[in-house]
Amino acid sequence: MESNDFFPPHDGIGLRELASHLGAELLDDTAGNRRIRSVAPVARAGEGDICYILSRKARGDLESCSASAILCDEALRPIIPDHIPVLLTPKPHAAFAVAGGLLHPIALRPPRILSDAAGIHPAAFVDPTARLEDGVEIEPMAVIGARAEIGAGTRVGAGAVIGADVKIGRNCTVAAGASIIAALIGNNVIVHNGVRIGQDGFGYAPGPRGMIKIVQVGRVIIQDDVEIGANTTIDRGTMDDTVIGEGTKIDNLVQIAHNVRIGRHCGIVSGVGIAGSTTIGNGVMIGGASGVNGHITIGDGVQIAAMSGVMADVPAGARYGGVPARPLKDFLRDVAESMTRSDERAKRRGDRNE
């Protein structure tokens, strides 16, 4: 790949120092002074790059690899070419993620629109009653509403809108074009481009002349260390709050409806829709394009396969998949049986046509 002006290489970290920081074992100490400047996939990693390998399926990629270091576990150590220094770790994927953050810290958050941004840009609007701690950055065309409060180290991107009375903690990033109303945001929260937080939930009652709008007077509460992907929407509660728990990571294009409560350290992948008043426990993983019914409970540690339809409560620790979602082993058995029946029907059709 050509030189990347968006995320340039690091000045360099010594391999011995990097291994110490990652808690990995450098097997060849004579390589300890090599400088690591960037991350790369195995197949095209070159001098100054670090890469990682998780499976023997990537063995072919090692033939073209000239990385200055590779992260792997003990089981894969024998297949690594002798010319590549090995950093041995039981969790190479996690170690690679940490290494990437060290080498490319600016890529951990949405980039600044202006490289020299500092303080409040003259083209931003900040209501006189808003309270901003020292060290807040407000980029051009952003709007900060009446009585809003923003903590030190937080950056509000170009064109973003922070509504009246919103409170945002310290060291947050609100990227370009996002809007936040009726919300309380914790510390170290990342809100990507185009996110919508705190708009109306979808609530109507049938009336004699059609649908009557139900007022939505709740809030959105987002706890510390949450990350929210681009163009995701999180509706405010009807009368209670919509809550996103500490450390939860939400992908792009996710819809979270009013009164939903999501626990800590969950992962919700792109295209998921969660209907109103659903409660999701801690450590839950929901695969892409899944739909979750309203007014149900998903227990701690549940895993939902991609493109599932969750219609009813799911017990803690369960693995579900399919439409309607059911225990994963049942879903996979049903799929296998369906494929067998399909093959048998195709064979019978073929026999009749002979």
UniProtKB/TrEMBL annotation:
Give the matching InterPro entries. Answer: Hexapep (IPR001451), Hexapep_transf_CS (IPR018357), LpxD (IPR007691), Trimer_LpxA-like_sf (IPR011004), UDP_GlcNAc_AcTrfase_non-rep (IPR020573)
Residues at the active site: H258
- UniProt-listed GO biological process terms: lipid A biosynthetic process
Q: Name one Pfam family in it.
A: Hexapep
Under catalytic activity, the entry for this protein gives: a UDP-3-O-[(3R)-3-hydroxyacyl]-alpha-D-glucosamine + a (3R)-hydroxyacyl-[ACP] = a UDP-2-N,3-O-bis[(3R)-3-hydroxyacyl]-alpha-D-glucosamine + holo-[ACP] + H(+)
PROSITE patterns in alphabetical order = HEXAPEP_TRANSFERASES
**Keywords for this entry?**
Acyltransferase, Lipid A biosynthesis, Lipid biosynthesis, Lipid metabolism, Repeat, Transferase
Which EC number applies? Answer: 2.3.1.191
Which CDD domains does this chain map to?
A: LbH_LpxD
MF-aspect GO terms: N-acyltransferase activity; UDP-3-O-[(3R)-3-hydroxyacyl]-glucosamine N-acyltransferase activity
Q: How is this protein organized at the quaternary level?
A: Homotrimer.
- UniProt family annotation: Belongs to the transferase hexapeptide repeat family. LpxD subfamily.
Q: What does this protein do?
A: Catalyzes the N-acylation of UDP-3-O-acylglucosamine using 3-hydroxyacyl-ACP as the acyl donor. Is involved in the biosynthesis of lipid A, a phosphorylated glycolipid that anchors the lipopolysaccharide to the outer membrane of the cell.
Protein name in UniProt = UDP-3-O-acylglucosamine N-acyltransferase
Q: Which organism is it from?
A: Pseudorhizobium pelagicum
